[in-house]
Amino acid sequence: MTPNPAHRGTQTTVTARVAPSVAPDQNVSLLVLARQVRAEARDALTDLVSFDIRALPAGTSLARVRVDGVDSNVADLAAQPPAFTGLTLTLT
């Protein structure tokens, strides 16, 4: 997720790399700071998705990307002990 940390006074969007790539007609959201932010419109198949962060409060939170109702993984449950593998996003 870039930029991270994101300074809301100078940046209005953050960008996440996703795999597999998403199509323009897919529903994509960022789940962060107990909020869901819809992705900006896309014109073609892409692995980079941008989100408007202007309405989000300052703070640090786990971040997930949701594509068509399926959330990105944040933990490796096969690891012993299970390990956090997800992203965090800091907004200042």
Shape: globular
Q: How much of the sequence is in beta strands?
A: over 45%
**What gyration radius follows from the Cα positions, in whole Å?**
13 Å
| Ends distance | 15 Å
Mean pLDDT: 91
How many strands in all?
Answer: 9
Classification by helices and strands: mainly beta
CATH class group: Mainly Beta
Q: So how many helices?
A: 0
What is the string of helix and strand elements?
EEEEEEEEE
Oligomerization state of this entry? Answer: single chain
Major sheet details: 5 strands, antiparallel
Number of domains: 1
Would you identify the regions where 5 or more consecutive residues have pLDDT less than 50?
none
* CATH domain fold name: Immunoglobulin-like
The name of the CATH architecture is Sandwich
* Helix fraction by DSSP (H/I, runs of at least 4): under 10%
What would you say about this model in short?
With 92 residues, the chain is mostly beta strands. Helices cover 0% and strands 50% of the residues.
Describe the structure using short key phrases:
single chain, 92 residues, mainly beta, Immunoglobulin-like, 50% strand, globular
